Amino acid sequence: GAGPGRSARFSAPWRPTGAERPRRCWPCGGGCSVGHCHPLVVQAAHEQNQVLNTNSRYLHDNIVDYAQRLSETLPEKLCVFYFLNSGSEANDLALRLARQYTGHWDVVVLDHAYHGHLSSLIDISPYKFRGLDGQKEWVHVAPLPDTYRGPYREDHPNPAVAYASEVKRVVSSVQEKGRKIAAFFAESLPSVGGQIIPPAGYFPEVAEHVRRAGGVFVADEIQVGFGRVGKHFWAFQLQGEDFVPDIVTMGKSIGNGHPVACVATTQAVARAFEATGVEYFNTFGGSPVSCAVGLAVLDVLEKEQLQAHAACVGSFLMELLGQQKAKHPIIGDIRGVGLFVGVDLIKDKATRTPATEEADYLVSRLKENYILLSTDGPGRNVLKFKPPMCFSLDNAQHVVAKLDAILTDMEEKMRSCETLRLQPEAALLSPPLEKMKHPTQIHY
Amino acid sequence: MCELYSKQDTLALRRKHIGPSCKVLYAADPIKIVRAQRQYMFDEKGERYLDCINNVAHVGHCHPEVVKAALKQMEVLNTNSRFLHDNIVEYAKRLAATLPEQLSVCYFTNSGSEANDLALRLARQFRGHQDVITLDHAYHGHLSSLIEISPYKFRKGKDVKKEFVHVAPTPDIYRGKYRENHADPASAYADEVKKIIEEAQNRGRKIAAFIAESMQSCGGQIIPPAGYFQKVAEYVRGAGGVVIADEVQVGFGRVGKHFWSFQMHGKDFVPDIVTMGKPMGNGHPIACVVTTKEIAEAFSSSGMEYFNTYGGNPVSSAVGLAVLDVIENEDLQGNATRVGTYLTELLNRQKAKHTLIGDVRGVGLFVGIDLVKDRQKRTPATAEAQHVIYKMKENRVLLSADGPHRNVLKIKPPMCFTKEDAKFMVDQLDGVLTVLEEAIGAQTESVVPENTPCRTKPPGT
């Protein structure tokens, strides 16, 4: 069977019966962007599958066409592409590119970052290495620019500069030890870290410090690229018109579920990599089918105006959630941009202590209501919304209504005044239903 | 065929937008392939080529059953493995059934590289050891962790061998340290591994794994001698390490008689971890690591989840299942044995005829032709090999050359390759070699010792 290192998402198997047609959110980063099984994407894959699916050592139109289309979405400097199969492969290549270009070795990352499951990436993912082999000497961790729970919060006059100064401090201390920075690696919007929106201006400041030290800026767009943020195609573009990373990695939603990923970089970086004289060959990367799929996804994003749609539905969702925040003390913070939203659940307004057990319980109640949501953040208390881009206003309304009902129910049952605290016997993974009124019996 | 860009434009766009480290075949005259079916590829002019390179298109390019399986599943569901689904468990079951009983736990990934990286993680997590023994000229993938254990790569680049990596001589009985005239090359090569283990242990280092391609492809179509792996396994396990068999190039029945290449070595050789990829999905990005319950449990004991976004998704699993079905239904293993034997026979006749051919080695549809300038010295005929592959391309046969000296012609075609294809390929090769040898001239006569009985007529007479 499948290895025990993989956890099933929910503790008990669950499958809808034929009779039910549950409405479903799919906010967990499943890599589906334009909608599950989108017919245009399926058709593109099928048509190409029937004609040719081979490797990139032969010339083919799809790969060059796809590269060109991608280059049109990016700042001009980012015009050279490497195609791979997974975000993890992309981040590993980004590391190799950075090191080759700079001649340096060390990497600066954000706390709670997650960049992939490969050996090299566990090393640069505090989210992983803290539980495994520990921090390597060439990895340096800067504070996550979390203005809700980090050291510099919403009441700080200039959190972007403050957090960027932390990076500067890290870089300086690295240099004092005689070490050299190859790269600053960050998810444009840290997802696993809790749906964090770095303050505007942070990345440009950081880039300055890193480049001055001879390093490059790697923007990991694997979770958040392709129009999800609504206002822009790429999440790093939120950081300012003039901000251009040296390397951008993409994956997950790029192929609507088909294993595709990509690294975009500058000619300078690409040429330095070539100068090693060692070929880079990825057996499946850039295949005609993968590129046909990637192109189809770009087409659908455009045709169905999903970027604008994400902006629209995203702000509506935020509005609704904002109302919920006013109503339910357990909601400490709502943050988001486009269809990338986080709901930070807390036990106490003053301390902002993560409401971990409550979040877990809430998620299982939502599942009973046929809504799939997951949590993240170091406190596993942030509800993550990153649904397929076709998520509608109705879907948003429905989810929030259910959320409201369940939170109301939880508050009634838990009998807390200002904040929600689970009573000892209720603090179970899935409390028995007989202890709770069934959701359908709630009148609201 | 309707082209979006002319070949010139395609090439120009590629130079503009695709990383220059990504090389094309036949760099001096790249080939644009727009269509493929079975063992044939077609360029933009509609010219048909016999594909002797693409082991990835295992059951034949664009096999309709595989295409159909993908379509059927793509229309219904393609999501990640955190949800229960039948396809992944069915596929794991079918794969496990092809392997010895102990190898029963599967981890699905998207590429051989991801699989090998995970194999390393499994091996290291198992007992907390770190060091890896790899073979010279090995290639295990393009990821950082794998370049470290791939001399084929790190020797070429500016990378230096890491101290936790130990390189054993590749068990190449044609060009290696111990050759076909040695009494027991398997033991001799295995003893090299033993020596490495002892030296490492003396320095306080601990062996996590011995990793080897069951048959080295980039290393030059190397088939390790019988008994080698068993002895190595003994030494490695004695040191607390595990054996990783990299079947990424050579699995799924390519050797004909067995499903997995490591099985050629006998029932008493069972690796601890097997990695597979390339042919697995007939071109769809699928790969897998299969290991024992013990190793899997040690891995999960850290409490850290292993999640691969696309690995084991319903579409990939459906595709993998379809490939297994086709291998069975079309008796592709049987075909590999029959056609492979025939091909090797034909090539051995060519060897008798052409002094450029130093060695013909192979099993099933995994064959290598080692070209030499001098049969006694076995000097690799590197330039000649390049010339041959370009000439073969002109004759509409796609071949590649590899090995540390890039002088071994590699033949690992789709498994539907026929006897007619074999004959065609060899006829073209014969022609090309004949012309080449004539051009090289007197050299061909001088390397043949005077007292050698002449079995065939020398070229030109």
Automatic annotation (TrEMBL), chain A:
**By its UniProt entry, which InterPro entries does this protein fall under?**
Aminotrans_3, Aminotrans_3_PPA_site, PyrdxlP-dep_Trfase, PyrdxlP-dep_Trfase_major, PyrdxlP-dep_Trfase_small
Q: Which UniProt keywords apply?
A: Lyase, Pyridoxal phosphate
User: What SUPFAM superfamilies does this protein's entry cite?
Assistant: PLP-dependent transferases
Q: Name one GO molecular function term.
A: pyridoxal phosphate binding
Q: Which family does it belong to?
A: Belongs to the class-III pyridoxal-phosphate-dependent aminotransferase family.
Q: Where are the stretches annotated Disordered?
A: 1-21
The UniProt entry, under PROSITE patterns, shows: AA_TRANSFER_CLASS_3
Quote any Pfam family the record assigns.
Answer: Aminotran_3
UniProt superkingdom? Eukaryota
Q: Which cofactor does it need?
A: pyridoxal 5'-phosphate
For this record, an example GO cellular component is: mitochondrion
What organism is listed for this UniProt entry?
Equus asinus (Donkey)
Q: Which Gene3D superfamilies match?
A: Aspartate Aminotransferase, domain 1, Type I PLP-dependent aspartate aminotransferase-like (Major domain)
Q: What is this protein called?
A: 5-phosphohydroxy-L-lysine phospho-lyase
The coding gene here is: PHYKPL
Automatic annotation (TrEMBL), chain B:
CDD domains the record matches? OAT_like
Q: Which GO terms describe its molecular function?
A: ethanolamine-phosphate phospho-lyase activity; pyridoxal phosphate binding; transaminase activity
Q: Which Pfam families match?
A: Aminotran_3 (PF00202)
Per the record, its GO cellular-component terms are:
mitochondrion
- Localized where? Mitochondrion
Question: What positions belong to coiled-coil segments?
Answer: none
Which PANTHER family does this UniProt record tie to the protein?
ETHANOLAMINE-PHOSPHATE PHOSPHO-LYASE, PTHR45688
Family the entry assigns: Belongs to the class-III pyridoxal-phosphate-dependent aminotransferase family.
The protein's role, per its UniProt record: Catalyzes the pyridoxal-phosphate-dependent breakdown of phosphoethanolamine, converting it to ammonia, inorganic phosphate and acetaldehyde.
Q: Any idea what this protein is called?
A: Ethanolamine-phosphate phospho-lyase
Q: Which organism is it from?
A: Equus asinus (Donkey)
Tell me the lineage of the source organism: Eukaryota, Metazoa, Chordata, Craniata, Vertebrata
